[in-house]
Every structure is written in structure tokens, then in C-alpha cells.
Design goal:
Largest sheet: none
Radius of gyration: 21 Å
Order of helices and strands: HHHHHHHHHHHHHHHHHHHH
Number of strands: 0
CATH architecture: Up-down Bundle
Mean pLDDT: 82
Number of domains: 1
Distance between the termini: 10 Å
CATH class: Mainly Alpha
Strand content: under 5%
Number of helices: 20
Helix content: over 70%
Structural class: mainly alpha
Oligomer: single chain
Length: 429
């Protein structure tokens, strides 16, 4: 695929790069304050003991983002300007998160708060998903492929400074010894995250969107589905990539339960949520520029190989802490601290997988068909992520070890699939 951008994009590259990075900076801070696998999982565990409901957080948030993208792709594919639609969805997201903040402040009944939380989380995620294709398509038009690694790396690296501060703030606010009890401590976090979300959305809206030729031919939803289903058959490299991404997504089945395991099996205190979040943020922060450099200079196949190998170590570490403390009882008191390594590895893995996967997809997708490649990929991943909600049932029936072992197997197969990917830049030589 071509790595160049048009004259308008070249003219506004510095502006677009800067506002795109600022959007990422504030969105990373937003994500750190209410990390779904740590902060929100602990929040829901305070409202219910149901593993199934705790396990729904990541699937609803991720699945809601991924699922609607194929449905909206035929509509967006015919429109040169995607930014107005993104702006409308940004307004809806901000309004929903404002309602979420009010709910945590005002609703005292845990059961009612739990229902409202899940409804609003699903609505927010769907609105974010509808804007997702717009975001990716605008980035693809505005940032050349040889700068996208740096673009996403700087978004997460620069955001790491604020996210690190945010993780320390989470530790401070959630420490009930400082006077803020549940749910007041979480209400403060939701309020702060609301204002940060407003700034993040505004930054991306300030980007100057370059225009590219698009087909004005109307494509029915049914035909769009048939075209999408034909993509893996026609494009071998894309098919291998899609299966690899599905396996990495399936490995997310264990993500919400690392903190639940730490809470129940290792008896960690709520203050450790901030410690774990700090470790994850530091790892993400420290690895981003490296991942971006590898993406730009060595290609995204290598980045996917390295990040999937790192993913392997996450469940492997979680599975090892218990047996190690059994072998050396003296390590028992250190187990909560040792478990921080799980979240350190997770922070590094998520950054590498995100940068590598998105950039690889943007490079193998033909510009005219970019929305359908993105939409189909993300819809399939959303279905897989929703299916991962069975993680809570697996814990109830078989325990944490089986769930973590299943995640380990998914990471292992995904790693071997990355070895067979074709680096798209080779095909351009």
C-alpha cells in the first residue's frame, strides 16, 4: 500500500499530528482514571459478588466499540468528510458520561446503580464504536504510514505522563483511610474523568480532515455484509491477521479477573488498585516510544510478534504466583506486590498490540475499501469480545486457574500466527 498522503494532509500534518497526539494524551488519562480491568472491575465487585457481571465490563465496553462498525461502514464509505459524524458522536459520549457521573453521585441503592451503570456503559461504548471508523479513517488520511507508529507512540507516551499522575491520583482517592468511602471516592473519579473526556473530544475535532475520492455508489447493508464476508477469502494476509486478532481478543477473557483474583485469593487492599494501575501505566508509558520506533522502522509484523510474546507472559505470571508462594511460604507476604508484574506486562502488551494491530490493518487495507476492512474487522472482534463474557461462568465452575490457562493457550496460538504474516511494506518494493 502507498505510504504517502495528499497535499492537504501534508500542509496540515503538524497541526493534525499535534491535535491527534493531544487527543490521545487526554484520552489516556481518562482511561487511566477508570481502567476497565482494574478500577471499574473493583467498582462493580463492590456492588455485586457475581463473577458473571464483573466479567461483563470489558466485553460490554470493548464489544460496544467494535460491534456497530460494519453496520455504519456503508454509510460512512460514501462520505468524504467523516469528522462531522465523529463530532456528533463525541457530544453523545460526553452527555452519557455526564449521566454516569450523576448516577454514581445520586443513586444509593447498589442494585439500581449496577443496572444504570451497565446501561450507560453500553450506550457510551456504542457511541464510541460508531465514531471509531471515523477516527481511524481520518488518521489514515492525515498521517502517513511511516509516521503512524510515532503518532500512536507519542499519544500513549505523552499521555503516560498524565496517566501516571492519574494512577497515583486513583491510589490517593480510593484509599478509604483518607476519608472518602465507597461510592463517594468513585464519584470523584467519574467527575474528573468527565471533564477530561470533554477536552479529549475537543482536541480531535480541531483536526483538519483531508479529503480523498470516495465512491458515491449506494451499497445496501446486505451487500456490504456479503462483501465483508468475502474479504478473508480473497486476502490471505488479512485472513491470517484476522484470526490472530480474534485469538488475542479471546485472551481478554481473563483480563477482568486478574484484579478479582488478587482481591479474593491474595487479599489485596483497595489501595493496591492504584499500585497496580501505576505499574501498568509505567510499562505502557516506557514501551510506547520503542513500539512506535519498531512500527515505523522495522514494520508492524515484528511489533505484533513481540507484543503477542509479551501477552503470553501475562497469564503465565498470574498462574505462577500461587505455586511460588506454596513452594516458598516466605514469599506469601510479598504475593500482592509480586502480582503487580501481571499488570506491568499487561501495560506493555496492550500498547504494542494496539499500535501494531491498527497500523498493520491500515497498511493492508486498500484506501477505497478502508471503511469495510475496519468495520468488518472490528465487528468480528466485537462478537468475540462479547463471547468472552463467559469468563465469569468459567471462574464459577472451574476456578481462576482454568481461565488463566485458557488465556495462555489463546496467546500462544496467536503468537505462532504472527510468524506467518506478510509484512505489507515488502509488497510495495
Amino acid at each position: 500500500m502507498a505510504h504517502t498522503i495528499n497535499a492537504t494532509a501534508q500542509r496540515h500534518l503538524r497541526r493534525n499530528f499535534s491535535f491527534g497526539v493531544l487527543n490521545g494524551v487526554f484520552f489516556n488519562l481518562f482511561s487511566a482514571l477508570l481502567d476497565p480491568s482494574l478500577v471499574l472491575s473493583w467498582f462493580v465487585s463492590q456492588l455485586t459478588t457475581s463473577n458473571f457481571l464483573i466479567g461483563l465490563i470489558v466485553p460490554i465496553q470493548g464489544g460496544g466499540w467494535f460491534l456497530p462498525q460494519l453496520v455504519i461502514s456503508s454509510y460512512l464509505q460514501r462520505r468524504q468528510r467523516k469528522l462531522p459524524f465523529y463530532a456528533r458522536m463525541a457530544g453523545i459520549r460526553v452527555a452519557i458520561w455526564g449521566l454516569m457521573t450523576l448516577a454514581v453521585f445520586l443513586i444509593e441503592d447498589p442494585a439500581v446503580l449496577l443496572v444504570v451503570f451497565f446501561i450507560l456503559l453500553a450506550a457510551y461504548s456504542l457511541a464510541a464504536g460508531l465514531a471509531g471508523i471515523c477516527f481511524i479513517d481520518i488518521v489514515a488520511k492525515a498521517i502517513p504510514s511511516t509516521r503512524r507508529g510515532a503518532f500512536f507512540g507519542w499519544r500513549r507516551f505523552s499521555g503516560g505522563f498524565l496517566a501516571l499522575g492519574g494512577s497515583l491520583l486513583v491510589k490517593y482517592i480510593l484509599d478509604e483511610g483518607r476519608g472518602l468511602a465507597f461510592p463517594d471516592n468513585y464519584a470523584i473519579l467519574f467527575l474528573l474523568s468527565f471533564f477530561i473526556l470533554c477536552v479529549a473530544m475537543a482536541c480531535f475535532i480541531l483536526i483538519v480532515e483531508p479529503l480523498e475520492p470516495v465512491s458515491k455508489k449506494r451499497v445496501t447493508l446486505g451487500r456490504q455484509f456479503r462483501r465483508a464476508l468475502d474479504l478473508p477469502r480473497r486476502d490471505t494476509n488479512y485472513r491470517r491477521f484476522l484470526i490472530m486478532r480474534l485469538l488475542l481478543m479471546a485472551a481478554e477473557i481473563a483480563t477482568p479477573f486478574y484484579i478479582v483474583y488478587a482481591k479474593r485469593a491474595l487479599s489485596v487492599s483497595v489501595g493496591m488498585v492504584g499500585v497496580y494501575l501505576t505499574g501498568s501505566t509505567l510499562a505502557s508509558f516506557a514501551s510506547n516510544l520503542l513500539w512506535g520506533r519498531i512500527s515505523d522502522r522495522r514494520g508492524n509484523k515484528l511489533l505484533l510478534i513481540l507484543s503477542s510474546a509479551l501477552g503470553l507472559l501475562i497469564p503465565l505470571t498470574a498462574l505462577s504466583i500461587g505455586p511460588l508462594t506454596d513452594l516458598w511460604p516466605g514469599l506469601g507476604e510479598l504475593a500482592p506486590s509480586l502480582f503487580a508484574l501481571v499488570f506491568v506486562l499487561s501495560g506493555g502488551y496492550k500498547s504494542g498490540a494496539m499500535i501494531g494491530s491498527l497500523n498493520f490493518l491500515l497498511e493492508i487495507a486498500p484506501p477505497d475499501d478502508r471503511p469495510i476492512y475496519i468495520g468488518f474487522t472490528n465487528t468480528i472482534l466485537g462478537i468475540a469480545l462479547l463471547a468472552s463474557s463467559v469468563g465469569g461462568l468459567i471462574v464459577d465452575i472451574t476456578g481462576f486457574s482454568v481461565l488463566f490457562s485458557l488465556a495462555l493457550a489463546f496467546y500462544a496460538v496467536a503468537f505462532f500466527l504472527t510468524l506467518g504474516l506478510q509484512e505489507p511494506r515488502i509488497s510495495d518494493l
